[in-house]
Amino acid sequence: MSPPKPLFSVVSLGCARTLVDTEKMVDLLQQGGFQLTAEGSGERITILNTCSFIQAAIDETEANIRQLSERKLAGHIKYLVVAGCYPSRFKEPDLQAKFPDVDLWITTKDEMQVQQKLSALVFEKKFRPASASVPYTKLTPSHFAYLKISEGCNNWCSFCTIPKIRGEHTSKTSEEVIKEANLQLSFGAKELIVIAEDTTAWGEDIYGKPSFPMLLKELAKVDVPWIRAMYIFPSRVDAELISVLRDEPKLCRYMDMPIQHVNSMLLEKMNRKHDKVFLTSILDKLFAEIPDFTWRTTFIVGFPGETEEHVQELMDFMSQYPITQLGCFPYSEERETRSARMADKVDPAIIQKRIRRIMKHQYELVTKRHEALIGKTFDMLYEGNGEGRTYREAPDVDGRILVKQSESLVSGNFYPVKITAVKGYDLLATLL
Ligand code: SF4
């Protein structure tokens, strides 16, 4: 008789891209004789999948390692595995010296070998449970799924550690992406959210030129109601991408396009490969050509050399180009990056003041724009607990639609709703 399968739990930090990697590792381990269980329910192994692209993420990762090390020392778990960006960014001997209770470090490049590496650690030679075909384990609700279409990044923005951590950009083939999309459909996905470090670079390594619009057209043939494009790199937005978003009804009229700043001098220092004239020209086209176009973006505030005038330039831009969802982050100096060696650093207290000013401005702008939505109707994908989303909101990062009469609603179904009021960044709605 085969011995019982060792139980493992996972903790996934960071963004949706890490979550997709976590799902893949869970899948491989379940096929290799391990069994997933909830944290704190008798597991022998805990896998911490990490983020470490900025200092705040490193701090969070290290706090989690310390906490899990204590669980191990107290005898609650036997093996502690740390995977992902953190062990990819730093040298293993240094990490081992800092955290001696970690049993295994797995970099992003080695994640596909998680099964072999963990087996070598856990199984005593011949006593190994039989491998089994286990259904893929989703860590998100079944009605939406993240489709990761490529790994790594070649853009080398001057503030970013990701090209170093995640390596060169490598696309999945369109066949692989479509196969994954169909698998997610079989689990009940109503929305496919296309992600990568830079989705618009997709295909460059396969076809010799970025071919993201072609992939979106292929994906639109899949029988799913919504497809949402995220992590768009502005300099690669062209007429073809805009026309796909305009003409393909399954594509949400929504774009997640992190722009980081609008001042041309700062964009050049950030190595973003476009200037403000280009940025505003694509936004003009997106707003002119796509009815009810919405977008989310992020700003980095306090990049070296940023002045009060540059912040005012950002705020004027916000008034001119309505940003539906905005994330505003303080510049984080990362040792290995080019921007860490730049002059004219901005004082952290000044950065915080600037962020407060920008977000106050955004709140006022969004409140006015949201008020203009009162009385309008939308299809809402219901998430449960009285909350849902329209095409204007991505899960986890954007605002929500709050519905009162939700007792009979089924999570993962679509319902028509009418917006009735504004509540902070959220909207209240009634069912039609
Ligand atoms: S596009 Fe720039 S910010 Fe985004 S992952 Fe690549 S290098 Fe980093």
What are the main properties of this structure?
432 residues, pyruvate-formate lyase- activating enzyme, OB fold (Dihydrolipoamide Acetyltransferase, E2P), 3 domains, 6-stranded parallel sheet, 14 helices, binds iron/sulfur cluster
Order of strands, main sheet, comes to 6-9-10-11-12-13
| Weakly predicted, low-confidence segments | none
Helix fraction, binned, reads 25-40%
Q: Compute the gyration radius: what is it?
A: 23 Å
Structural overview:
- The chain has 14 helices and 18 strands.
- With 432 residues, it is an alpha/beta fold.
- The chain folds into 3 domains: 116 residues, Methylthiotransferase, N-terminal domain (Rossmann fold, 3-Layer(aba) Sandwich); 228 residues, pyruvate-formate lyase- activating enzyme, CATH 3.80.30; 55 residues, OB fold (Dihydrolipoamide Acetyltransferase, E2P), CATH 2.40.50.140.
- The chain has a 6-stranded parallel beta sheet.
- Helix 13 packs parallel to helix 14.
- It is globular.
- The mean pLDDT is 93.
- It binds iron/sulfur cluster.
- The site of iron/sulfur cluster has 10 residues, from helix 6.
How would you summarize this macromolecular structure in one to three sentences?
The chain has 432 residues and is an alpha/beta fold.
